[in-house]
Write a structure and sequence with these properties.
about 50% helix, Cytochrome p450, single chain, binds protoporphyrin IX containing FE, three-stranded antiparallel beta sheet, alpha+beta, 15 helices, globular
Length: about 425
């Protein structure tokens, strides 16, 4: 039987409370949101949600929610139909911000995306990442040395953020004296993505976010100049020497890539690390298994942390050509939102999806995306970092644990933890 034709937007009767277009949905407890996603997965076809009602000047704006594993995979892979321009975040980035600061590769499509990705992937080949392994181990060891010296307190700032930040700065070749400022700027640049805030705060904070972007752009420009005249073996040198359409990356492209790495690479990994501590504290049987044979269970544990916590909740796409998927026919211009957080709890793919099980095999989670040309460039690096850090955390201090609930940001974009109180006993010397 054919898919019902769509002449205009197709509205659906929604299960009560399951409206991800409503900012208050993202204030619900995590368990209530998961229940709502389960109700949406049970719908016959992807539901439609109104983001902004129509006025006499503007048409209605809304999106279709792709919540099933199979639908998210298909839309991710059909990149000629479900395109990333003009933007994958909600709301989409303003045109003038993209013009001023350069477009991020997540928002691009072929052929520009393909060319840029080819260049930047050179820094993420298994061979280069194997070479980075030693550095990752060293960073993990230093972070845990400092943690032991500083005593228990707050896990995000003292442990989880430091690990990915230092690793990416080392990869890029960011000099030490730039790092404290960059760390502060990154927090400002991304603190409000996907968070609904009161109008006063909205007016005040974008200025701070844009200032942070502009300042990072300036730092990149000065580093790019330095590396062009004196290349080293770091990522910035590789990028300014690289050829995209016969040219090296310009300052705007370099700045945009750097900002993306800082948000995509640091925040995601930091949130995964923080959720890992809560999950291991709440599931002592799983932790005992991991501690008993770290080498055997670590890869599975890291994948299960990423599935269960899903650090990136959603990305969106715009429909370019008419296409049917999941029982709906989509028309050019339609917006679809890919809910990785829902796909990762799809009961038709994962047995007992709410259970944290480090032995889950297979574990085809979509935490790094559903495949296709935008699949996370740093997935392997993230796995290496989380594994190296937990190898140290579980073997050196004793009884490391979360001692309170995570302070979660109410974001529709990432499963961000603002703070997590933790404790441990020092190692026996
Ligand atoms: C647990 C950690 C991480 C998670 C959960 C994660 C998740 C994701 C997701 C969901 C996407 C979008 C995929 C798609 O649209 O199909 C993505 C893209 C990306 N990620 Fe990650 N990521 C992580 C770590 C990292 C790290 C460590 C780096 C780099 C150092 C990184 C760099 C990127 C880049 C550059 C993209 C854009 C790729 C493109 O548009 O071609 N990510 N990531």
């Amino acid at each position: 039987m054919g898919v019902p034709a769509q002449s205009a937007v197709q509205h659906t009767v929604q299960p009560p409370g399951a409206n991800p277009a409503d900012p208050s949905f993202w204030q619900l407890p995590h368990s209530a949101r998961l229940e709502a996603f389960a109700a949406l997965r049970a719908l016959e076809r992807p539901g439609y949600f109104v983001e902004r009602a129509a006025t006499w000047r503007r048409p209605e704006r809304g999106f279709y929610a792709l919540v099933r594993h199979a639908d998210v995979v298909q839309a991710s892979r059909l990149s000629q139909v479900f395109v990333s321009a003009p933007g994958v975040t909600t709301p989409e980035p303003a045109g003038w911000v993209r013009f001023l600061f350069g477009d991020s590769m997540v928002n691009m499509d072929a052929p520009h995306h393909t060319q840029l990705r080819r260049v930047v992937s050179r820094a993420f080949t298994p061979r280069l990442l194997a070479a980075a392994e030693e550095d990752i181990r060293r960073v993990a060891s230093c972070v845990v040395d400092d943690m032991i010296e500083q005593r228990p307190g707050e896990f995000v700032a003292s442990v989880a953020s430091r690990m990915p930040f230092e690793v990416i700065c080392n990869l890029m070749g960011i000099p030490e004296h730039y790092r404290p400022e960059i760390a502060g700027r990154v927090d400002h640049a991304s603190e409000n993505v996907g968070v609904d805030r009161p109008l006063r705060a909205r007016l005040r904070v974008p200025g701070r976010g844009l200032r942070a972007l502009a300042r990072m752009q300036m730092m990149m420009a000065s580093l790019a100049r330095e590396r062009r005249s004196r290349p080293t073996d770091d990522l910035i040198s590789a990028l300014v020497r690289a050829d995209v359409d016969g040219q090296a990356l310009d300052v705007r492209q370099l700045g945009a890539f750097f900002s993306l790495l800082m948000v995509a690479g640091v925040e995601t990994t930091r949130n995964a690390i923080t959720h890992a501590l809560t999950l291991l504290t709440d599931n002592p049987d799983q932790r005992a298994l991991l501690e008993a044979d770290f080498d055997r269970y670590a890869d599975g544990a890291v994948d299960e942390v990423v599935r269960h916590s899903t650090p990136i909740i959603q990305f969106r796409r715009t429909v370019l050509t008419e296409h049917s998927l999941g029982g709906r026919r989509f028309l050019p211009g339609d917006k679809v939102v890919l809910y990785y957080a829902s796909a990762n709890r799809d009961e038709s793919v994962f047995t007992d999806p709410d259970v944290f099980d480090i032995t889950r095999n297979p574990n085809p989670h979509l935490g790094y995306g559903g495949g296709g040309p935008h699949f996370c460039l740093g997935a392997h690096l993230a796995r290496q970092e989380i594994k190296a850090l937990f190898r140290e955390l579980l073997s050196r201090p004793r009884a490391l644990r979360a001692v309170g609930p995570p302070d979660l940001a109410h974001s529709n974009f990432d499963n961000r933890v603002r703070a997590l109180p933790f404790a441990f006993e020092p190692p026996v010397s």
